[in-house]
Amino acid sequence: MGTQGRQNGGGERPLAGHHDVLICGASFAGLAAARELAGSGADVLVVDRYRIGERPTSACGIPTDWLRALGLMEIELQRFGELVVHSAGGTTVLDLPYTFSTFDYDEMCELLWRNCDAAFETATVTGRGGEEDGEIAVETDRGTISAPLVVDALGWPRILAPDGGFQPLDAPLTRALEVHPPGTGQDLEVWVDRRYVPAGYGWCFPADDELRIGVCSYRPPSHVRAGTDLLAADLGREPVRYQGNWIPHELRPPAEAGVFFAGDSAGQCLPLTAEGIRTALYYGVAVGRELRAVVEGRRSRDQATAAYTRLHDSHQKGFRLLLFVQRLIPRIPPRLLAPLFRVYRTRWLVNLTFNAYLRLAPPGFVGEASADDQVRPGEQQGDAEQPLGTDRDFVKAE
Length: 398
Ligand SMILES: Cc1cc2nc3c(=O)[nH]c(=O)nc-3n(C[C@H](O)[C@H](O)[C@H](O)COP(=O)(O)OP(=O)(O)OC[C@H]3O[C@@H](n4cnc5c(N)ncnc54)[C@H](O)[C@@H]3O)c2cc1C
Hints:
Blueprint: E1 6-7, E2 17-18, E3 21-24, H1 28-36, E4 44-48, E5 61-63, H2 64-69, E6 78-87, E7 90-102, H3 105-114, E8 119-122, E9 125-132, E10 135-140, E11 143-147, E12 149-152, E13 173-179, E14 188-192, E15 200-207, E16 210-217, H4 225-234, E17 243-248, E18 255-256, E19 259-261, H5 277-295, H6 301-314, H7 316-328, H8 334-344, H9 347-358
Helix pairs in contact: 1-3, 1-5, 5-6
């Protein structure tokens, strides 16, 4: 990997000019892509509206093997081998075939960035300009930047889509809110309990000296503030340090009009669990590899687009199955949930499903040479659009 990237953020100097690669968004997907380009010799610019690691975007729970694969075990805070599932009728403990870990957002971003040799500027991306001679223009509040290779890793708003899409309340988006009170714990816990949310779940992840307690709703109009406060109160914790966002739960096209989309912008967050960090990393790595092949003259942009699209499509079935279960669970009468979880607890069933779930974005991919290796042909992707300029944060509104 290359040397640490340069952060020039915060300047008022207008931004303009041409780069080989422009990565919009410096969170999991964007930084994973930039990391793959380190040492390629390409002129890579990463932009984000905040400085790197400044604004946490999640509860930061991830399969431990992903931290290991990225060489980031030093940021692990706590590790969990079981998932404790609470529902109205009782509690079931699932013995998992692999562990999950918690970490701090700023530390992951900082370490990913340390392996990059790109430049960074703070700038708010406002939309997409035209394309001329293969150069795509991207509008920001500090001027127009252009590059032949552009990645939208801006999260769910999908700002660089060529046309406007849906607004949050009509869109396939999950709404999530969490609080971060001080405290300690041992268990990775979830609540499938309609007292907190009619369709969705609540969670409590301990991370060293704080707890991350939150609720997500698969139905965008359902507010989650009351459920989050109630869960925190039931756990005897103060609802402090709120953090919330929308999370996509349906795949969207991974490339459109020359722009590559990775992470939440491509809807690559897993339905049902709303786990989107490892998928953002996975597809960020995949995009970075494809772009590297282009700058090194091993592929054309079209070939890279086709290879990345095949990878995205190869996981469609798994994403659809999770979406099916996401829609099914809220329809099951609450009294049946606990018995069903007890049946599900059977070791072979937990192993089978959790291992298949991990394969949707396997940590081993980090060490593999080419995105093409992952392709399983013969599956088609769904289609969806995203809005321009909608506000991704709704904590205030909540
Ligand atoms: C409350 C909550 C808890 C969660 N907990 C977990 C969890 O424990 N585990 C898990 O796997 N997933 C979790 N998720 C989901 C996960 O956070 C996302 O799927 C993941 O962050 C997606 O990564 P990304 O890089 O695609 O996008 P993001 O992390 O959303 O990053 C987008 C980046 O783009 C920048 N940006 C946005 N708009 C602009 C703009 N106009 N101009 C410039 N920059 C811009 C942002 O500042 C940000 O840096 C959680 C989500 C929420 C809301």
